[in-house]
Amino acid sequence: MIGGGDGAYIGNIHRIAARLDGAWQLVAGAFDVNPEKGRAFAGGQGIDEARSYGSYQDLIAAEQDRADRVEAVAICTPNFTHFPIAKALLEAGFDVICEKPLTATLADAVALEALARSSDRFVGVTYTYCGYPMVHEARVRVAAGDIGAVRSVQVEYPLEWMATAIEQSGNAQAAWRTDPAKNGRGGSIGDIGTHAYHLAGFVSGLTLDSLTADLATFVPGRALDDNAHVMMRYQGGARGLLWSSQVALGHSNGVRLRVFGETGSLQWFQEQPNELILSPLAGRVQTIKRGADDLSEDAKARTRTPAGHPEGYLEAFANLYAGFAEAIRAQREGRAPGPLGRNLPTASDGLKGVAFVEAVVDSHEAADQPWLRPVAV
Amino acid sequence: MIGGGDGAYIGNIHRIAARLDGAWQLVAGAFDVNPEKGRAFAGGQGIDEARSYGSYQDLIAAEQDRADRVEAVAICTPNFTHFPIAKALLEAGFDVICEKPLTATLADAVALEALARSSDRFVGVTYTYCGYPMVHEARVRVAAGDIGAVRSVQVEYPLEWMATAIEQSGNAQAAWRTDPAKNGRGGSIGDIGTHAYHLAGFVSGLTLDSLTADLATFVPGRALDDNAHVMMRYQGGARGLLWSSQVALGHSNGVRLRVFGETGSLQWFQEQPNELILSPLAGRVQTIKRGADDLSEDAKARTRTPAGHPEGYLEAFANLYAGFAEAIRAQREGRAPGPLGRNLPTASDGLKGVAFVEAVVDSHEAADQPWLRPVAV
Amino acid sequence: MIGGGDGAYIGNIHRIAARLDGAWQLVAGAFDVNPEKGRAFAGGQGIDEARSYGSYQDLIAAEQDRADRVEAVAICTPNFTHFPIAKALLEAGFDVICEKPLTATLADAVALEALARSSDRFVGVTYTYCGYPMVHEARVRVAAGDIGAVRSVQVEYPLEWMATAIEQSGNAQAAWRTDPAKNGRGGSIGDIGTHAYHLAGFVSGLTLDSLTADLATFVPGRALDDNAHVMMRYQGGARGLLWSSQVALGHSNGVRLRVFGETGSLQWFQEQPNELILSPLAGRVQTIKRGADDLSEDAKARTRTPAGHPEGYLEAFANLYAGFAEAIRAQREGRAPGPLGRNLPTASDGLKGVAFVEAVVDSHEAADQPWLRPVAV
Amino acid sequence: MIGGGDGAYIGNIHRIAARLDGAWQLVAGAFDVNPEKGRAFAGGQGIDEARSYGSYQDLIAAEQDRADRVEAVAICTPNFTHFPIAKALLEAGFDVICEKPLTATLADAVALEALARSSDRFVGVTYTYCGYPMVHEARVRVAAGDIGAVRSVQVEYPLEWMATAIEQSGNAQAAWRTDPAKNGRGGSIGDIGTHAYHLAGFVSGLTLDSLTADLATFVPGRALDDNAHVMMRYQGGARGLLWSSQVALGHSNGVRLRVFGETGSLQWFQEQPNELILSPLAGRVQTIKRGADDLSEDAKARTRTPAGHPEGYLEAFANLYAGFAEAIRAQREGRAPGPLGRNLPTASDGLKGVAFVEAVVDSHEAADQPWLRPVAV
Predict the structure, then answer these.
(1) Share of chain C residues as helix, strand and coil, in percent rounded to the nearest 5
(2) Which residue(s) pair with B288 in the sheet?
(3) Disulfide check for B146: which of B141, C88, C113, D62 has CB 3.0–4.6 Å away?
(4) What is the residue-wise DSSP string for A240-256?
């Protein structure tokens, strides 16, 4: 693991996710830009101090020649460092698990995706929400035609924790997220809108054609958008509406997806993730529960407990980690992966996400965007 | 009442609403284009057959000279007839209660609003959702600064009943709604999007600056949009996102409004109308219940039962009717109306609604609307 | 109408209910024990002052000889007066609509039910919750075997408004409800538990065999129970659990019914009355919406608007009034009543309710009720 | 670990829970009554085959002399075997983590609790629901007086998976649960009612005084109750109502607790475990979210992610395991445990649970239990 040391939020999530199903063991890392602190942290995690490195370069140098070298490396550092680290790891022959977004700039994303494609290494990107079993269930059902041809997608990702200028009062998580140099050009759209965009495409199976967008920065002094509205047109004529916000009071982590087809709709809400709501054209609104007998193989492979025993965010994250393990193992063994190792977010998805954010910001900044004013308002 | 005879949906709603609080008595009407059927219908309603007229012209001619002439006339006919009927009624000195939209064309709306302004007659427009007490409560709270300056508004009005081409198989309600000559240029945006637009402005107190929109027609053969996405910019910098759909399977009548301010948010959902969700910046998500002791005068005036005894759509409609009665009575008595007679939807709101729909359709049809395509999707 | 004058809560509800569907006209009454106040009140309601009487005796005396005498009389007075008023009305040949409970004592209930049975007059009792269309839908489905033989019933009616000793600080509604002489022996069980008991039997179709109960009075100084727990055994072996409470903070009017059968269950919640939740043995949890096409004739007859347009408490009450009108009219016309006039709560239900309350209080007070203490707690 | 091998449901849950926070490592076990299968299973778990034993006796014999002997042993076998295994482990000086119920008979429970008390070993019992952070939050708030003196408790645990006679068609989980010899005298009340009883006492802080109960067996041929109703009286006058059912169609794992006090109430529902609903006497219904800043130390110690990132059943179970680790470590280090190691379910709770089930069955079977029949039903 690179980054994710003392005080890091997402690093701990990655570790729990890796450990939960017993598919991974954390044996080495460069956890902190301060090597001393990194070593202390490694010790607390029961990791051999000799394998706690001062930098990712040191890690690569030392690990690449070990017989028991690490199998894959998780990158849990701020966005702008993803590219050099991932590049170096791939070139040294390591499989990579990278936090989203893949990179902070489009050029980096294009380059990294090309490198991933040309290498024989695996690059997984942690688009967390496609780790949820009921998201897979939704994807399978759409693909199977259960709701007919998709007409429209409504997706939103509202948050409230950045509703005030906490980046100006010492919140490190907010500070790098609002710094264009570290985060990239997209504020809310890059941080969470990209999750929503991936989720919508993952479930609907649709490919974006074009978009037009409106960004806003509501917190005074903030350098990036904290609220984004995007109208999307998908290839084939379906439409989408996407809203991301970091200032939506009342919403803790309100990822919500609704997909409307010709013969039905599906709705999923991340804060109640064990349910999927199916509304068929003929018939009643139904609740599909995680753990039910009639779920798809894809959903069943990502669940551990019966219906009624809530699984959540950590289990979804663990499903990604278990999936990456299965994909890597299958690759090495020259076999097709099992259901856990399929439909995983990879470098290609990472690139699409970065390109989406670029297009949203470009659309917002376009000089010729026409806004009409009604004659009476 | 003009229109609203046998088989008419909205006419019956108007009658129940007028009767519920005992503020109105239905004594005359031109209920049907077929005078025989109209007369039969009037009889069934206990109305003197002599006052069941064959046309609105007949009604005006006969009623305007009676000592006990009707006090106000409700127009419950298809959109394109609103203008001539309302105009004739106003010119004959009747107060008018008109179904939304005010008219089918912008020119008619402009003319009618001007006429209403220059006359001393009252013109109420039945934007139903601002009849709900908790919508008033939300309006009062926003106006009082309870959520601070408004940053953004999310409003949606999804329906499912036109998800297939029912207008082609004899559904009269769907037939005129999909006929541009009878309905106007806006399909879903004119039928229900205009409700959402009014509701958003009513509660937020915001005035629209400009918009950009994307319409879609998903049901083959349909002549008007059945799904609309609108990005809005309000004066002062607030943003809005509006979605209306007549093909959103799973949604019966899903009007939902969320208003986000600097220090709080409010959420209201029409299918659970007795609750208002308040999320303050500091503190917990709270449920404000209709019937609670600490509600505003505006909300209390529009409620009849204690908390926990659900009131709904008919009570909201009745609140409009009771409000129209109070406004008209106060006008005649030369006094300020009580709370029921304030903040009512009038011709001015009707014009704004029609202008909004025009701008949405114009935006969608604009040749220069730029849509960007990401480099990777 | 007897009682229900100025300041009376339930009287106003009865009037709205009677008026909502246009089935009744209020033309006479003895609204107040103070004739002056009663007359003033009648005037405000648009009632001929000559038909505003000083007592129920006066009303009977004056009305019984009029050609246009009232057709039925609603009794909206405190419990202990129901019996003499209803008795006098029946003996004078009036149809009666009586608030629940039928009477304050079992002896009165037995006598009144016998009188009702031997007369040819109609006696309706306003068990409000069986006015809801989705309650009828539930009843029809259970009767049709949709959930198989019923195994158990969970019913509760929690309220919060009497959580403190408001009867000691001037609340008239609470004062008579906590006075055994005016209310009868059952506190929460008589006021609201009787609603829950009726509802459970109405939907399940089950007949009670026996019960054992535990009452509590939590507010110091209160003379009657404010919390009741009842275990029920129905004939045939089904079981029931009933909870009523006037001190359940957080619950406004939380009537909730769940009926579990061999092949499915049904759940209905009064604060969201437009939905019925069906959980079949095979298949998914489903939401049955009021207004759907596939509802029973009984439910359809009790609804005015499409799905998604909430109807509530007043519409349920209006359904009872419309039903009483239909039942009375059918009786006079010597025909079978239509669906609205069937399955109405009558004197027989009123007697069962009073008998239930008596048995609950008797059970609680029984000297020999064995309570076991575990060896370790 | 004893038991919990191939195909065992709860064994896998214990392993995930132990692993999730990295507090435990599984190094030895007697996983299966068939030693071959046990060994194969151990291999799959990455456990040294030499420490995969054929029986708990073998495990004790081999492990008790190792320098790196296991620190604690988890018992995941059917109920009737808990006692001999736990006894042997305690006598050999191992700490014990035991599935609930503690034992299958009251005599065994009394003996085991005494043994635990007199030994210096730790005995944890996995009453899962007190592992949830919001259950701890509720406990802390009740103890702090936030809802005033507790008046009543409503607790229910409905399940649906045994609604048909699946024990007769090869379902092993159902088979031992319906066999009195393996499960004990209580069916639903022993399997899940005991969870509900523990949860109610844990949060309310109340001590049971006495109870009266009604059991039912709805599935033909079943030897134990599958539905239980219990009325409870707590010391000091508070009341409780408990319902457990294995045949409640529609309920997956519906543990629900409501605690009503003089000045507020708290509600928690296991299928939405990240929320706690607080209804104060003065003020509005509020949602307390896991992850909020103002939660108790006890709740915060049991959470890993911010609000909005659902944690669930496995995290609750992991909290118990992390707590057992902390309690054992603190005991060895002679210090007071941190918040995770406090308020854990131990042998004493296990005994109370078994005694409760005994009393419920005794009450139901008591010859003198009076059930009253109303005079009219």
Answers:
(1) 40, 20, 40
(2) B276
(3) B141
(4) EEEEEES--TT-SS--E
- Dist. CA B32–CA B53, nearest whole Å: 9
CATH H-level superfamily of B132-305: Dihydrodipicolinate Reductase; domain 2 (3.30.360.10)
Nearest to C286 among A284, A289, A292 (CB): A284
pLDDT tens digits, B205-221: 999 999 999 999 999 99
Q: Which of A16, A46, A308 sits opposite D271 (nearest CB)?
A: A308
Q: What is the ipTM of this complex?
A: 0.95
- 3-state DSSP helix/strand/coil % of chain D, to nearest 5: 40, 20, 40
Type and span of the H or E element at D241: strand D239-245
A→C interface, C-beta within 8 Å: 278, 284-289, 292
Model pTM?
A: 0.96
Cβ separation B286–D288 shorter than 8 A: no
According to DSSP, the residues that pair with B316 across neighbouring strands are none
Residue B139, token pair as written in the block: 């309006």
Distance CA A39, CA B77 (A): 78
- Asked if B310 lies within 8 A of C273 by C-beta distance, the reply is yes
CATH class name, domain A2-128? alpha beta
Closest by Cβ to A289, choosing from D252, D308, D311: D252
Computed over every residue of chain D, the mean pLDDT equals: 95
> Within 13 Å, how many C-alpha atoms sit on residue C345's CB side?
33
How far does Cα A185 stand from its chain's mean position? 17
CA distance A46 to A25: 11
Tokens of A37: 């602190």
Q: For C215-262, how does the pLDDT look when each residue is reduced to its tens digit (9 = 90+)? A: 999 999 999 999 999 999 999 999 999 999 999 999 999 999 999 999
Residue C255 distance to chain D (closest CA, Å): 15
Architecture of the structural domain at C132-307+347-362: 2-Layer Sandwich (3.30)
Closest CA to B285 of D292, A76, A245, C161: D292
Spans of all domains in chain B:
132-305
List Cα–Cα distances, B169 to A283, B173, B175, in angstroms. Answer: 20, 11, 9
Q: List the chains bordering chain A where 3 or more Cβ pairs fall under 8 Å.
A: B, C, D
CATH of segment(s) A131-309+347-362: 3.30.360.10
